[in-house]
Write a structure and sequence with these properties.
five-stranded antiparallel beta sheet; alpha+beta; 4 helices; Glutamine Phosphoribosylpyrophosphate, subunit 1, domain 1; 203 residues
Length: 203
């Protein structure tokens, strides 16, 4: 009997001059079956940091719980953690589990004294921070096609939100594992994490 993991996703993140925009679709799949049309794939793990998940849902949720707990402890002992510090913690956790890995790819996005930052983190803890935008999951090739064509470092926050939305819509149109009821979008800036009403977005 075939065994299936809850998977399927597209997540997107990009940086602007003083903000980060992140977005994700809402579908999770179980083999060829749609398991959920309203799955959450963006999780705030602190007031100024969020995590997007792609891959096995069970593994991802275990990481989300662990990161939230560790960041709360860090805040009690030392104050708010930096975005880079949170990424280093996640990288160490994943690398320490490399022989029994978490089947996920993550984007860590946040804002601190260094400004807006995004990091792509692979299942073994490898970190990439050199790009201005990232996409993960089965629909990422379609999202990247939009981002590569239309991204600019000078995008306004409104236009950046619209671009992330457009990239997700491109993935939904072409990737069978991406979809669901709408998309989830959020902005992180000096005020912290804030989710965006999809109805307010105009392309």
């Amino acid at each position: 009997m075939e065994q299936y993991l809850k998977t399927g996703t597209t997540t997107v993140s990009l940086t602007g001059r003083n903000f980060v925009v992140i977005g994700a679709d809402r579908k999770s799949t179980l083999g060829y079956m749609v398991d959920s049309k309203v799955a959450r794939k963006i999780y705030p793990i602190d007031s100024h940091i969020a995590l997007t998940i792609a891959g096995s849902v069970g593994d991802a949720l275990a990481i989300v719980r662990l990161m939230k707990a560790q960041l709360r402890l860090y805040k009690i002992e030392r104050g708010p953690i930096t975005v880079r510090g949170a990424v280093t913690l996640l990288s160490n956790i994943l690398h320490g589990s490399r022989f029994y890995p978490f089947f996920n790819q993550f984007i860590v996005a946040g804002y601190d004294f260094r400004g807006p930052q995004i990091y792509s983190v692979d299942p073994l803890g490898g970190v990439d921070e050199k790009d201005k935008f990232y996409a993960t999951g089965s629909g990422s090739p379609f999202a990247y096609g939009v981002l590569e064509t239309e991204y600019s470092e000078n995008l306004s926050q409104k236009d950046a939100i619209a671009l992330v939305y457009k990239a997700l819509k491109a993935a939904i149109e072409r990737d069978i594992a991406t979809g669901g009821k709408g998309v989830l979008l959020a902005v992180i800036d000096e005020k912290g994490y804030m989710e965006i009403d999809e109805k307010s977005i105009k392309l």
